[in-house]
Amino acid sequence: MTKTTLVDSSSTGTEDVEFKIIKVSPETHKKLLKLGGKSETFDQIINRLIDAYEEKKHEGAQESHD
Q: Domain ranges in the chain?
């Protein structure tokens, strides 16, 4: 059985946000836990990764125009 830690949404500023459930493998779950900070939610981790990806993608697009 997998142990999941719940974070109080009032402490993350997400109390009025509707959440969706996504399925990830146990391996992906472990990777997300390792990438996250102590009080960081999975939503925050995933958004940080998306932001980093988009920034890198944007940088690559700029370099091809130079």
A: 37-66
